[in-house]
Amino acid sequence: MKNLDLKLIDKRTIRKNMEQGLMSPDDYKKYLHSLPDEKENSVSVDFETLLEDHLSPLSSLPSSDS
Fold it and tell me: Is residue 23 within 8 Å of 8, Cβ to Cβ?
């Protein structure tokens, strides 16, 4: 795999860059597979609990139906 310019693999421009022939889908796949696994640096998030915690203060507000 040739060294890809980081500007070419920007998530917002990948499709355009491929259409212009600046990179191929295979180049992009090889780049993605070359990235290190960062699982040890990740944090698990329970979105249901997060949403409940975020919305619970709203439940104490007076209803607009009153």
Answer: yes
